[in-house]
Amino acid sequence: xxxxxxxxxxxLLATFRVEADEHLKAMSSGLxxxxxxxxxxxxxxxxxKIFREAHSLKGAARAVxxxxxxxxxxxxxxxxxALKGKRLAVSAPLFDLLHQAIDxxxxxxxxxxxxxxxxxxxxxxxxxxxxxxxxxxxxxxEMPAPAxxxxxxxxxxxxxxxxxxADVRTPLPAPSxxxxxxxxxxxxxxxVMRQVEELLSPRLASGQRARELRETAGVLATWxxxxxxxxxxxxxxxxxxxxxxxxxxxxxxxxxxPKLLEYLDGENLHMKTLEDLLVSLAHSAEHDQxxxxxxxxxxxxxxxxxxxLPFSSLLEVFPRFTREFARDHAKEVELVIQGGEIExxxxxxxxxxxxxxxxxxxxxxxxxxxxxxxxxxxxxxxxTIAITISQRDSGKVEILVIDDGAxxxxxxVKSAARKLGIVSAEEADKLGEQEAIAxxxxxxVSTSPIITEVSGRGLGLAIVREKVExxxxxxxxxxxxxxxxxxxxxxxxxxATYRGILVRAGDHVLVIPATAVERVTRVAGExxxxxxxxxxxxxxxxxxxxxxxxxxxxxxxxxxxxxxGAGAQAVVLSLGSVRVAxxxxxxxxxxxxxxxxxxxxxxxxRNVAGASVLGTGQVVPVLNVPDLMKSAVKPxxxxxxxxxxxxxVAAKKQSILVxxxxxxxxxLLKNLLESAGYNITTAVDGIDAYTALKTATFDLIVSDVEMxxxxxxxxxxxxxxxxxxxxxxxxxxxxxxxxxxRERGIDVGAxxxxxxxxxxxxxxxxxxxxxx
Length: 772
Hints:
Elements: H1 2-36, H2 41-63, H3 67-84, H4 92-109, H5 116-133, H6 155-159, H7 186-198, H8 200-243, H9 250-307, E1 308-310, H10 312-315, H11 318-328, E2 333-338, E3 343-345, H12 346-367, H13 371-376, E4 383-393, E5 396-403, H14 410-420, H15 425-430, H16 433-437, H17 460-470, E6 474-480, E7 484-492, E8 497-505, E9 508-513, E10 517-523, E11 529-531, E12 534-539, E13 542-548, H18 549-552, E14 568-575, E15 578-584, E16 586-594, E17 608-613, E18 619-623, H19 625-633, E19 655-659, H20 663-675, E20 679-683, H21 686-695, E21 700-703, H22 712-721, E22 730-734, H23 739-748, E23 752-755, H24 761-771
Helix pairs in contact: 1-2, 1-4, 2-3, 3-4, 3-5, 4-5, 7-9, 8-9, 11-12, 12-17, 21-22
């Protein structure tokens, strides 16, 4: 019996967490809306809505005996009751406190939240701060609210001890279909989705069988026609034999030949019967195939619909994130979202959460200027980031992210790319502004003046592009100096099944995702030109590279030599602004395909995204379009750094000066960096370090900030003002994590600012490798 009770409680807690998460999301989004609107009827309605959510969460927490959550919710109820009764004024500090309370509730919901005793001091402190907020002077002391507004009308439901597990939430106006909905585990839903998708294989197979029956009936019909053609000739021969009876043995032939004709006449009847049977089977197979296809398509569509969620479910956390990240960087930013009602596959939304965070960080950190700077440019003090979601067609959704910030400095991008060896100085000079800006998608390229725990590594947009392309989407980027930046992402609405173009390259059948195919074309031999040792074809007034798909995939061509002047069948693929035409031996057609992963043994195969099973039972590779585009261009990989001269002597170790007044921290950094292969010299403060810099040569400085005599900020400023040391990289490692200290690090010229609370050895080594 105890085991049954334990299982019941686990299920009950799991249900509670789902319900509580919905309440917290509603409270958080309500607070964000409340912060934006002025006082009035709408504000009162929002306060009432959040008030009810807190009350419902309190009642549900009491039902499952989670007293910590109940305690915080009770204090929140008091605050919202005071706001509702006009006894408490809204303010930025109050909103900060309320958001902290919601964060604390979210932490208490985690399965690994820890022991109750360990949490109690933090909970009591939070409740004390909420209670203190109620002691603030009333905005209108002459209009006290009635006493009954301190608690909701249905407070008796929350205070009474529950005799059994029940829904104690104060009811809000529910949608008319609420009673028809049910919660289903996403794991179960995914399992059903996989099984339904597997129906695509028998559906394709049934179509293949129907085609084979039609072809067999066609073969029989052809045979019948050929058989009918020879029968007149046989009859003519029979008549000739009847007239000429002087040939020896002809009498015996005269008796046998009519038997042969009689058999052939009877064979016609059998052939007609067989032909009718095949035609009937073909019609039945086609009917069954259409029925199965209709049922499969409808079932797959319905299950896909079950996977769809509105985009707002992904974006609902971003107003809060934007608010806090902007405030941490002393900026004012308004996030505007349009089209959140458009529904997309839940799996795509899950995959896109982190990329969107990277995009918003880039907009705020690199794009939006500080209020004073914006006012100097005659812009509003607060910046605006707009996210617009729109459905392009039945299979794609477009996400447009636009900010009205400073834009991207193409010159800085070129400089960063040159330092990384991505482009040479000559290549950088030839790049246009938009081509240079596109380099921000390359890993490591960043225009940030300093490396911190959240920016400056040049990985954000590279991660975004990789994730988008892995989902089968595309991403493009536009920016104008002081004119803002726009990021356009095109994603499929659903995953797994999609249309594919079947082609033959060499002796192999391959599938190319139709979403990336701009067109299929046949090119005349005289239109193929050679430009800079590459074949090209004219398309829409532009020269587009033409490459053999077999060559890109390192497979032998079926007709390697080709025929002079012969035309070419080609598939034109586009990714962003790049177009490449892939020459193939044959284009076989288009059909729906189900992509299968290759398994852990082949988790990453260049140019291959997965495999699919055709209706014939043949397993064919599904190609990875971004990989194909890169393989087709085949850029030369530049060296990541200068190559040491081969003089027969081992390359000299790079030297680092470690400046740290703490003996323990100094020893830790020295041991870490020496183990990584660097020569280390130590100094105990800024003055000691500056003396060492004048007597020896170093490749980089790693310094603490808080030190006697001369701190890390002053040391960095002194280094930057010294002509001989001005270019020396400086990494500040400090416990000072406030925005003001980080900005001071930028002002004095530090290359990286690492907070000790988030210190990671590999992180420090990665930054050092990037800087020297």
